[in-house]
Amino acid sequence: MRRFLTVLLAVLVLAPAALADRRAAGDGALAVSGASARVIAVKGSGLIFGHIDQGTLTVISYDAAGASAPQITGATPKIVGNAVVYSGADIRFLFPNGRYSLRFEGTGIDISAVGKGNVTALGLGTGHDGTLTANSGDSEPLSVLSTNASFGGPAKSAASVPLAQGAAKGSSQK
User: Fold this and answer.
1) What average pLDDT does range 125-129 have in this prediction?
2) All structural domains of the chain with their residue ranges
3) Helix or strand or coil: residue 152?
4) DSSP code, position 16
5) 53 DSSP β-pair partners
6) 28-52 burial, b if ≥16 CB within 10 A, otherwise e?
7) What is the chain's mean pLDDT, rounded?
8) What pLDDT, on the 0 to 100 scale, is given for residue 25?
């Protein structure tokens, strides 16, 4: 048990330093917490990781910038068209570095990203659909209005727009 706690402490101390080394000039941050979403679409470059309690992760595209491959646990991949779809419970994912276009649907979605990109999120309308924070700005609650934000580059805060204007292209209602 003591060894486990020592390793855990080392990871907690060294992880932020490792992430800081990967940040390039103009990189920003994205955090999605406790989301219940009809769709969250994230397109960007850099590091992205997280967890889905119950739902689907669709990898529309991923171009690795290094030798590290993405890591996805909790679901088996299924190829649908040109995308790879992971559905299930307790899905954990890590895309260590590169360009990506990802789509998330479900409940208990937590996403963290460092780099540059854009996100569009559409909640389920439960009243507690989670939050989205870009570039350390104010947290924006997710709702049935589409929330759009950019992270990295010039700072832009999250903004909600009416569903008809901001719905993610190709999103399906569940």
Assistant:
1) 87
2) 24-166
3) coil
4) H
5) none
6) bbbbbeebbbbbbbbbbbbbbbbeb
7) 81
8) 65
